[in-house]
Specification:
Oligomer: single chain
Shape: elongated
CATH topology of the largest domain: Alpha/beta knot
Radius of gyration: 19 Å
Distance between the termini: 19 Å
Number of strands: 11
């Protein structure tokens, strides 16, 4: 059973995520690449995000000029072809790439005790995780929980899809999701799993804060052990022949209903 606590109806207020923690690994092990105007703009706006290398076309440099000047960053002029060679021809880089270091995750014990968490159960597609992260920022979620394994790299495509949210929304990386959900229950979180076949509709469910919304990967959905560590299962009501949503769309809808109804 989860512990009961007073739950103020107060959304999270995001600042920027914290400084990278130095490790004993090699000098290149923590370096990551971000690309796309929104992702790079958010990284440059985050005073805790170090800048190792910044490459941009003339047009992109003009759009980011104020931030580049504010950070005192040395810009490397680049052509679109230069960036294609660096990132790969499939990357939608919008004329800019930033080499930086990964920001540290936080622990479950650092999560706001009055917020809404988004928990992803082995969602590995970077576009989906990035889009879910963007929705978490839009609805003021207290954080996004991922497993250390079976989750995509926190850079590149994910950061582009997150549209800057990677530098804003707290990330919690855990080794074992069932154990993490058990800890959330001990901390008073109502754990609601999203399942297409659930009898209770999320939009009419009685929701309380702190709240953890748990979503599974497309196709297989929530794993059995994950289900067993949820307090209840709910569905998102749909109409027509399509009974399910893309996981990132489901995250956005779930966060919408939770932000409206959770007390």
């Amino acid at each position: 059973m989860r512990r009961q606590r007073p739950r103020p109806n107060k959304p999270a207020s995001h600042g920027f995520r914290g400084k990278p923690k130095r490790t004993s690994r090699g000098p290149d092990s923590d370096r990551i690449l971000l690309f796309g105007l929104h992702a790079v703009e958010a990284a440059l706006s985050n005073p805790n995000r170090p800048v190792t290398r910044l490459m941009a076309t003339e047009n992109a440099a003009q759009r980011l000029g104020a931030l580049i000047a504010k950070r005192g960053v040395t810009l490397e002029p680049a052509s679109p072809r230069d960036l294609d060679r660096l990132l790969g021809p499939e990357a939608v880089h919008q004329g800019v790439a930033l080499e930086t270091e990964a920001l540290p995750p936080i622990g479950l014990d650092e999560v706001s005790p009055e917020g809404i968490l988004l928990v992803l159960d082995q969602v590995t597609d970077p576009q989906n995780v990035g889009a879910a992260l963007r929705s978490a920022a839009a609805f003021g979620a207290a954080g996004l929980v991922l497993t250390e394994r079976h989750s995509p790299p926190l850079q590149g495509v994910l950061a582009k899809a997150a549209s800057g949210a990677l530098d804003v929304v707290p990330l919690i990386l855990i080794k074992n999701l069932a154990q993490g959900l058990a800890e959330l229950g001990e901390r008073g979180f109502l754990r609601v799993g999203l399942a297409e076949e659930a009898s209770e509709a999320l939009e009419t469910a009685v929701l309380t804060r702190p709240l953890a919304l748990v979503l599974g990967a497309e196709g297989k959905g929530l794993r059995q052990l994950t289900r067993e560590h949820c307090d209840r299962l709910c569905r998102i009501s749909t109409q027509g022949s399509f009974g399910s949503l893309n996981v990132s769309n489901a995250a956005a809808v779930a966060l919408h209903w939770a932000s409206l109804n959770a007390r």
